[in-house]
Design a protein that fits this description.
alpha/beta, single chain, three-stranded parallel β-sheet
């Protein structure tokens, strides 16, 4: 542990180094007490991010595993998103080639062989269960969808991430938000970050149509976002400004112009972005224990939740503001492929704001209408930060209890993540922004805001009592009676929550 303490110290210093490179500090003194005019920022400018990461990798144990295999099982055929954790060869595609190069560097560093096998996303959870129960160590790392992997975690099939010796979740290549949001009882089982790109693709965003923004002389949403003034009220105001019955038939159907275009998943995404989740974690700080007692409570009765729900229900159902792409009969949406309909809407300037996920950018590569990227707005200006919820079917990294060597696996994963922090992340930004026909400098800054503010809502990942599903259904029915909904489902939801907490206490 003394060695690991040194690693933690070096890690902390490197975090500080990353931050210090952005700020000028007081000049250090020379041997005679005089300052030489050199600041910490000056010292860090001599090292690139790549060099800082190399320093960190050099601080990790210098292990030789003599050709040991590290085997990954990855959810596949998910229909969207970057699924790859490994690449077989150089192809000329930037993300593929960066993954290939990263993995070969890690293999050479530790004398390991990285292998990746795919499993259909609908069956990977059963695969984990079957193999772990049989103590089969065929796979050292699993990458299931989050809402599928939680069963394995509750059953005790996965290692607590805090027990993975060389994983330093405080480093910037890991997304610490998933630990904050999904840890239960002080334990966490899933990791996301630069090591794997699917969680990026599954992050909720808003695409805005620049043609509509300019034609209606609306405010600069990039500026609103940067100044903390991009709010629900502002989105509604701007959305109302563009609503147009284009064919003049007195109806608002496909082919008319709407303020917001979305699908059902926008409902829980907006709740999360407004910091109004269905379930919240609570801590009892009066406990004598060093760890406060954790409970999970239903949040539907809170004043804030009701205000946010009322807004969502109104904008989804009143005054023809929103086009829900899953209500094809209501809006007379023509039948066709999912992507074709969304592309046609963007190309035809049929909406101002489109609530989706980053992977949607891939659909719009050929769209000529100019569009930009922004986060989902805050509820109001009093809300401190933007919140960018990640879909429940995002893919995450987890390690089974029967892995051949947890220390080896954690060291390899840490190195893979660190190696990804510069090159693979940059390739992802480059490809994502290239999907926009008209590139702008603001989009990269928006991605930084979005990725820094990601959240992993309990609502859709656990959906205790089916309550999150019922909230979506209530909005679809324009139902404002949350009290009746809660009365029907509260007991079942709390029973499910208690069962989850008990399983983690026994098996986690």
């Amino acid at each position: 542990m003394k060695y690991m303490n040194n690693i933690k110290l070096i890690s902390s210093l490197l975090i500080i180094a990353f931050i210090a490179s952005l700020f000028a500090c007081s000049a250090p003194e020379s041997a005679d007490g005089e300052t030489d005019g050199t600041t910490v920022a000056d010292m860090q400018e001599s090292k690139s991010n790549t060099e800082l990461i190399a320093d960190y990798l050099s601080s990790l144990p210098d292990e030789n595993y003599d050709g040991a295999e590290v085997n990954f099982l990855v959810a596949s055929e998910t229909l969207w998103g970057h699924e790859m954790i490994d690449a077989e060869e150089i192809s000329g595609e930037p993300i593929n080639d960066e993954i290939y190069a990263r993995n070969r560097r890690v293999e050479e560093r530790y004398s390991v062989v990285l292998n990746s096998t795919q499993e259909h996303f609908t069956s990977i959870a059963n695969k984990i269960s079957t193999l772990v129960q049989a103590s089969d160590d065929a796979f050292d790392v699993y990458l299931p969808r989050l809402n599928a992997g939680i069963g394995a975690a509750q059953s005790g099939y996965l290692l607590d991430g805090s027990k993975l010796e060389y994983i330093n979740a405080e480093m910037p290549w890991w997304d610490s938000n998933i630990i904050k949001d999904l840890s239960i009882g002080g334990k966490y089982f899933f990791l996301t970050g630069d090591i794997h790109l699917y969680a990026n693709d599954a992050t909720h965003i808003i695409l805005f149509n620049k043609n509509n923004l300019n034609d209606y002389n609306l405010e600069d949403v990039y500026g609103l976002t940067e100044n903390g003034r991009w709010t629900f009220a502002k989105m509604e105001e701007m959305s109302r400004a563009v609503v147009t019955d284009i064919d003049g038939d007195g109806k608002y159907l496909w082919g008319d112009r709407f303020g917001i275009q979305c699908a059902n998943y926008a409902i829980p995404a907006l709740l999360s972005a407004a910091d109004s989740p269905v379930y919240v974690k609570k801590y009892d700080d009066s406990s004598d224990s060093s760890d406060s007692i954790e409970t999970i409570e239903i949040n539907i009765n809170s004043d804030r939740f009701n205000k946010v729900y009322t807004f969502i229900n109104r904008t989804m159902n009143e005054d023809n503001i929103t086009l829900n792409m899953e209500d094809s009969a209501k809006f007379n949406i023509p039948s066709g492929s999912f992507s074709h309909e969304w592309i046609e809407a963007m190309q035809g300037n049929q909406c101002l704001f489109m609530i989706g996920v980053l992977d949607y950018m891939d659909m719009f590569y050929e769209v000529e209408s100019d569009f930009g990227i922004i986060p989902i707005p805050k509820y109001d200006e009093n809300q401190t930060d933007y919140i960018a919820p990640v879909m429940a079917d995002a893919i995450a990294v987890c390690v089974p209890v029967c892995t051949k060597s947890a220390d080896m696996v954690s060291l390899v994963l840490e190195a893979m993540a660190a190696e990804s922090s510069d090159s693979l992340k940059n390739a992802y930004y480059e490809i994502t922004l290239q999907r926009k026909r008209s590139r702008d400098t603001e989009s990269a800054a928006m991605l930084d805001i979005i990725f820094a503010s990601r959240s992993y809502p309990l609502d859709r990942i656990y959906n205790w009592g089916g309550l999150s599903d019922d909230i979506i259904a209530a909005v679809k029915k324009n139902n404002s009676d949350l009290g009746s909904l809660l009365a029907k489902k509260e007991q079942r939801a709390y029973t499910d929550i208690d069962n989850t907490l008990e399983k983690y206490a026994q098996n986690g």
